[in-house]
Write a structure and sequence with these properties.
Strand content: under 5%
Order of helices and strands: HHHHHHHHHH
Organism: Musa troglodytarum
Largest sheet: none
Helix content: over 70%
GO molecular function: endopeptidase activity
Region (Disordered): 1-27
Pfam family, one: Rce1-like
Distance between the termini: 127 Å
Number of strands: 0
Domain CAAX prenyl protease 2/Lysostaphin resistance protein A-like: 211-260
Number of helices: 10
Radius of gyration: 39 Å
């Protein structure tokens, strides 16, 4: 008996029977996804940094705002602040400062005042200006406010002793004056007093010197503190941040003390400093 071997069917592997589809290449897809993702990360970091910066700025603003003890409630209307300031300048300050001595010289029939009469006349003019600005502030205040109590409260604040602060401020100012005088003597050399009227008053007699000290160390500072810090700075700080009020009131103070002679001195000193630096 002859047996015939049946042919075996070829084995087919699963991999060859069901071939897997080819995967697309990844490098062509990754750049399109990674670039927007990196941009999103950078935007998130920028926003977080901006938030941290704003938080630090707000904390710094709160610290600076807490430093100020200026009152937020003032006896004058906010809309009347600049009109009162203009009335003081053009009705009291400019006429008395620039024409007061001429009027006194005509009343006394003396074209040239002696130093003692001059310093006494300036003191009378400053006191008149102080009485005038006090009256102006009193009649323009709100009915329910007492201007005298307002200024009295500024000197006796519960959180800060203004007398101690004034002593420290005057001491610092005197130290800065001596320091700048020493530096000016080293750079420029000693010079005489630029104001000839003040030089004449200081060299006239001890009484003239005492009157000059009373004028420039008591009467004038009292007048300027009442106008520029007591009224203007307090009024401005009730509608804006205190450092903005300080800058604006300081600018107005500088305008009130500006003159042609001082402007010429400022230009000459600026030119000299520029030449020294260059």
């Amino acid at each position: 008996m002859i047996t015939v071997a049946s042919p075996r069917s070829p084995r087919i592997s699963p991999s060859s029977a069901c071939p897997k589809p080819a995967r697309p290449s990844q490098p062509s897809v990754l750049p399109c996804v990674s670039i927007p993702f990196r941009g999103f990360q950078s935007r998130v970091r920028a926003r977080s940094f901006f938030r941290r910066f704003c938080a630090k700025k707000d904390s710094a603003d709160e610290l600076f705002e807490g430093f100020s003890v200026l009152p937020s409630d003032i006896p004058w209307e906010n809309s009347d602040v600049w009109s009162i300031c203009a009335a003081y300048f053009f009705v009291l300050h400019v006429p008395l400062s620039f024409g007061g001595l001429s009027v006194i010289a005509q009343i006394l029939h003396e074209p040239n005042l002696d130093p003692l009469t001059m310093v006494v006349s300036i003191t009378v003019l400053q006191v008149t200006e102080y009485v005038g600005v006090s009256t102006l502030l009193h009649f323009n205040a709100k009915p329910q406010y007492d201007v005298c109590r307002f200024f009295h409260a500024k000197w006796f604040l519960g959180g800060r002793n203004c007398i101690t602060a004034s002593i420290v401020g005057i001491g610092t100012l005197i130290g800065l004056v001596f320091l700048t005088s020493i530096v000016a003597d080293m750079l420029v050399g000693p010079k005489d007093v630029n104001d000839p009227i003040l030089q004449k008053i200081l060299l006239d007699s001890p009484l003239s010197m005492t009157s000059c000290f009373f004028l420039y160390c008591l009467v004038t500072p009292l007048l300027e503190e009442t106008v520029y810090r007591g009224f203007l700075l307090s009024s401005l700080s009730s509608t804006m941040k205190w450092w903005q009020a300080v800058i604006i009131s300081s600018f107005v103070f500088s305008i009130g003390h500006f003159s042609a002679e001082r402007g010429k001195q400022l230009i000459n000193q600026t030119n000299y400093l520029v030449k020294c630096i260059c």
